[in-house]
Amino acid sequence: MVQPTVPAAREQRGLPYALGAYAIWGFVPLFFKLLEAVPPVEVLAQRIIWSLPLCFVIMAFRRQIGEYLAALKDWRVLRLLLASSLLIALNWLVYIHAVFTDHVLAASLGYYLNPLVNVLLGMIFLGERLSRLQAVAVVIAAIGVAILLAGALDTLWISLTLALSFGTYGLIRKVVPVGSLPGLAIETTLLLPVSLAAAVYYLWIDDGLGFGASAEISWLLAAAGVVTAIPLLLFATAARRMSYAALGFVQYLAPSIAFLLGLFVFDEPLKPAQLFCFLLIWLSIAVFSFDMWRKMRAERMVTVA
Q1: Using alpha carbons only, how large is the chain's radius of gyration in Å?
Q2: Cα 145 from Cα 140, distance rounded (Å)
Q3: Domain assignment of residue 35, given as a range
Q4: Contact 265, 142 (CB under 8 A)
Q5: CA atoms within a 13 Å half-sphere pointing along the CA-CB vector of 57
Q6: How far apart are CA 90 and CA 199, in angstroms?
Q7: Position 1 in a domain
Q8: What pLDDT is stored for residue 175 in this prediction?
Q9: At CA 129, angle to CA 25 and CA 168, rounded to 5?
Q10: In-domain check, residue 3
Q11: Where would I find the H helices in the chain?
């Protein structure tokens, strides 16, 4: 009898890490709400600056400094990571803007759309083929987006920018031959000069809102680096211990938490167009997840037989 590629016990060992990563990402609007008086660009700059030292500490602990230095010498890797760094910076900036402007619902919709965007990008750039159910899921999601075009155009750009930027970021990171943590460290290294310039600019204008305005704000901005690096480390650990398909089911935890926060904690209004869109996206996700579950079940039956 042949054992499955990813045994159930191994899946269970990775599950706590996945739940931890997506729970942090889901509740992170509560953290950023504490900084909503700070300009979003400064929050992004400080987030990048403070995440880099933590990345180095973790890389040293995991003995990945050599991988980081080797990747820095590879021009092809650097070009790809420069593109991915710009995409993740855009994603972070739009997300921070969405939280600060009370559009957490729009942000959660963007991350609900992300797995479906991944499917489309895989089909276009990696030659992957859509199953019939996946095609149905994409069509249902497209109808939901079309409804937003008709009734909630003012926030649609947030959802689509988050979904497309993170989806394209994931596509690039999928083909770059570098680990998750060294890759993140290189991305933050590439973004560091601009981030330092932005931080110095805000210190120079002394608007009394950002870093240095108070001990509380300064510590919160520094903690943004931890909020950035820790869930990514948890995610990387989970990805090694779980099948990617199983991990895909857990990823809906983050936007679900954000949706509930936007609706019940931040009291954001849910427009009719948004409600219909969410209903269609949830239906799309149900179809998509059923197709994933069916494939996982079929693969396990084959490998166990």
Answers
A1: 20
A2: 9
A3: 8-100+108-304
A4: no
A5: 10
A6: 17
A7: no
A8: 85
A9: 35
A10: no
A11: 8-33, 40-62, 65-72, 75-100, 104-125, 132-151, 153-175, 180-205, 215-241, 244-250, 253-260, 272-304
Does residue 253 lie in a domain region? yes
Please state, in angstroms and rounded to a whole number, the distance separating the CA atoms of residues 111 and 101. Answer: 17
Sign of CA dihedral 204, 208, 210, 211: positive
Q: How many domains does the chain have?
A: 1
Pick out the chain residues at pLDDT < 50: 1-8
3-state secondary structure of 6: coil
pTM exceeds cut of 0.90: no
- Looking at residue 118, its amino acid is N
Q: Which pair of structure tokens corresponds to residue 9? A: 């016990």
Going 91 to 93 to 98 to 99, the CA torsion angle's sign is: positive
Burial (CB count <10 Å: 0-12, 13-18, 19+), residue 7: exposed
CA distance 79 to 109: 30
How many C-beta atoms surround the C-beta of residue 30 within 10 A? 15
Structure tokens at 202: 């805000």
Residue 74: inside a domain: yes
| Residues 124-172 pLDDT 10s | 887 878 788 888 988 898 898 888 877 777 888 999 999 999 889 988 8
**Cα 238–chain centre separation:** 15
Residue 303 structure tokens: 């490998």
Whole-number Å distance between alpha carbons of 152 and 103: 12
